[in-house]
Design brief:
With 320 residues, this protein is an alpha/beta fold. The protein has a single domain (4-318), classed as Alpha/Beta hydrolase fold, catalytic domain (Rossmann fold), CATH 3.40.50.1820. Helix content is 41%, strand content 16%. It contains 13 helices and nine strands. The protein has helices spanning 4-20, 63-68, 97-110, 123-134, 163-168, 170-175, 178-199, 207-214, 222-232, 244-250, 279-284, 301-304, 306-318; strands spanning 22-27, 31-38, 45-49, 72-76, 85-86, 116-121, 139-145, 260-265, 288-294. Strands 1, 2, 3, 4, 5, 6, 7, 8 and 9 form a nine-stranded mixed β-sheet that branches. Helix 3 crosses helix 4 (123-134). 48% of the residues are buried. The model is unreliable at 6-10 (pLDDT under 50).
Amino acid sequence: MLSRRDLLKTAAFAVTLRAQSVAKSAKTKVLDIAYLESGPASGFPVILLHGFPDDAHAYDDVAPPLAQAGYRVIVPWIRGYGATRFLDSAAPRMAEQAAIGQDVIDLADALKLPRFAVSGFDWGGRAAAVAAALYPDRISAALLIGGYTIQNVFAPPSTTQPPAAVERAWYQWYFNTENGRVGLQKNRKALCRYMWQTWSPTWKFTDELYEKSAVSFENPDFVDCVIHSYRNRNGNASGEPRFESAERELAKRPPITCPVMTLYGGDDAFGKPSPEPTAAERASFPKLTGHRIAAGAGHFVPHEKPETVSSAMLDLLKSM
């Protein structure tokens, strides 16, 4: 167990390292991706992916221990968030799962990273899973916060969900209406703050912390990307033709063959996690190295329990 002096030293180092985190950008064929980087340039790369509605600052307290351990930590703003921009003003503002997964690979290509480890939650967890499933030769390990979230976008939406599940997905139904699009456009900060409050009901975040991430929702493509994502997965918006074959492959729910660790928020409003790996989880992750639960955390685990995320990632990286 660390002494009080050691804990203070670690905390001080983390504060210093956050200050040293450098904002950069990299151009792919589609995007100019903004990202934060810390740690040695020669270190093994780790890409951390945020979810909806959040941004790269979700990992502000996760990245320092990884960088301190010698890893090169890259935390991008995904399409539609922060300073990330589409290069072509006429390009479709779409954010289907195959697109955000491809963005991860494209970013790695732009940074000349032949192999890397990845972690993510919510949209970021899905992007990480998609990239790992479709490009097993590129990803060495994956910490998936929320488990296996790849979807079959061709399947008709379920009409037999229990009422509690329908209630939890209210925002998806809302975004599939014109009122939802306009509402997100006009009230994005209030709506997203409500999601923070209700998806992580025990998290007492400050106004300052929320505003630090909410600035990213002012991205001019935020609304279009969010609306497309939730309409596409519910059968009300088509995807990009170039991702048709990828989506067909993802519809088969392919296993992720690299070493995987799963992590769940114990108080996530979307449902209590299983205390042990399920049969479906073991089938999806043939090299499952661990199944952890962040007690007291809701949906936004990197914000709420950063030390749990960084510890899990370090343990996973050691297992490679």
